[in-house]
Amino acid sequence: MADNKAILKAGDKEIELPILSGTAGYDVIDIRSLGANGYFTYDPGFMATGSCESSITYIDGAKGILLHRGYSIEELARDSDYIEVVYMLLHDKTPTSEEYKEFKDIMTRHTLVHDQLHNFFRGFRRDAHPMAMLCGTVGAMASFYHDDLDINDPEQRLRSAYRLVAKMPTLVAMCYKYNIGQPFVHPKNSLSYAENFLNMMFSVPAEDYKISPAVAKAVDRIFILHADHEQNASTSTVRLAGSSGANPYACIAAGVASLWGPAHGGANEACLNMLEEIGTVDRIPEFIARAKDKADPFRLMGFGHRVYKNFDPRATVMRESCHEVLAELNIDDPLLNVAMELERIALSDPYFAEKKLFPNVDFYSGIVLKAIGIPTNMFTCIFALARTVGWASHWHEMLSQPGQKIGRPRQLYTGEAQRSYNKIDK
Prior knowledge:
This protein is mainly alpha-helical. The protein has helices at residues 73-79, 82-91, 97-109, 117-121, 130-140, 154-180, 193-202, 213-225, 233-243, 248-259, 267-278, 284-292, 313-329, 334-348, 350-354, 361-371, 379-400, and strands at residues 5-10, 13-20, 28-29, 57-60, 65-68, 71-72. It contains 17 helices and 6 strands.
């Protein structure tokens, strides 16, 4: 490295590559000139590749740091609400009281979906997976706003983002109601974002749903803690789809599809499935022993994190809400008893501390969702609901930056070299 450059020796060539520095985190080597010199990098899973420049979210996994626009996730989860975080992610600043009030009103007025969208649901099987319905209906929204899809117009981009964030709770609740055979519930403008979602999920025409403040607060925190997480698989998918000039609804539908994978958005669902496999508190020691056995394929889901090598900063805040909800609802559920005992053992066993296997945000959010009556097949939909603002923010940011190109990764080809083709009759 000399004069803030890296020197790459490749064969008989010496290639100078600029070194770029961001506000925080690792410096990056700008490799864009490699192609002109006859080389590409090979990095499956993009473990050492920066795909873009962004000012939205910063993560330091070794130190357990997650910042949105420079603000720590712990402060945001404790002192703000989801609507304020949505505004901040989309607008690169926290709102004033007047801006917050106006923005909250915009979000409230956009929650209703077009009545013809109800017809799309009737085309699904009654037992269709909620994520299958969400993929289809989010993409279908483009057909209702075709005259407001100019991605080169910042105002139209923001209006699309507002619609997506506002309508996603309505769509997710519709997926649930369709599955269980209950009528769709329209949004109520008098309720907060989280309260409105809960009401659309659980109220029925025959009686009102009583919204618990502790539950509404916990759900709002789940939304905040999942709002964005930098360049993960689904966010990268949204950016890649957006780089082609695709409309915002198609891009977010692509994000929903990517999130559906069990290695990504299905983590809290996998955690609940694990608790069901354990079954009862007296079986926990058996599964703890299996988790410590390297020869056993069993893994404790909801413990540790691919990014956070110490602790998940989101889990600290979510743990508070988890215990508040369980105390408020006073539920005697064997599965929740297993979860709480598993948490106690994991936090006191030296093995877990040594391996940094602390409960992560998926562990606590899964318990909360289970406690308030949301079935496990809906968990990933709620993750998508919360993450929509992150996807939309990255899509909007990408299209705001000059010199954007369509995403076109390279490959290391290992197939046959060119050969002659013989006609089929030969």
